[in-house]
Amino acid sequence: MVRRLRFTDTDSKVDGCPALHTDEDTGEIIVQGTPVTDPEDLAQLRHFGAGEAAVAVPRELLVNWGPREMERAPELVDRASFRCLFETFEHTAWRLETRRGYASDRQDPDFQAFLANGSSPCDPDEPWFVTIKAQTDAGKTVGRVRVADAPPTTEQLFLLDYARHNAAFGEDIRYLWREDAERAGLPAEDFWIFDSRLVALLHFDDGDNLLDIELITEPAEVVRYAMVRDAAMHHAVPRDRFAAQVATTE
């Protein structure tokens, strides 16, 4: 069976070697480095078995990017604790959205209004808008990149329309076609990252219902999500420009 490998990171500044990868199914760490082939060097290795290979990597690679625990126990938080993160972050809150739809949107009366007349209403007293306006008025940054299909799903079109309201309260929402996201190597994950130090990974079921929220603080993992954010922001386009692209394809 072919392994499902996820690139962890590298300390190389030139060609990407040496590097670490993680087997998504077994949790094994795949170390990429310079092969050790000299017979006298190999003779010094203990417990070196037939069919095994040795590679040399800088110590800093393992220190910086090696997992701190054999198995990471998920730290789950409830919805109330999750909402508090939007009131306590200091500088930036940013989200990647990759699903084709969300059950919470389909249950929203604003979604039904959009289906009826093609436009979503806006309630300025909605708690989310009140919180985000307070944070952005304080000089903090709130943003998202949404991955959209070609053509966009009905739910994605609803969010594209609703993003007008988000922008009015200070959110920077950008868009990326799914094929471009896949070409850029973005993961099919939904998460918020706060102040580049804490990740809230959102887990959904097959019906697009939010199951639980996992907090990640391990530095190497947080850096990986920060790299995803940077790549997504590099390739994404502002909401208005994306809306114009969608209009030309309809």
UniProtKB/TrEMBL annotation:
Domain DUF6879, chain residue ranges per copy: 81-243
| Xref: InterPro entries | DUF6879
Please report the name of this protein according to its UniProt entry. Answer: DUF6879 domain-containing protein
What is the organism of origin for this protein? Streptomyces pimonensis
UniProt lineage: Bacteria, Bacillati, Actinomycetota, Actinomycetes, Kitasatosporales
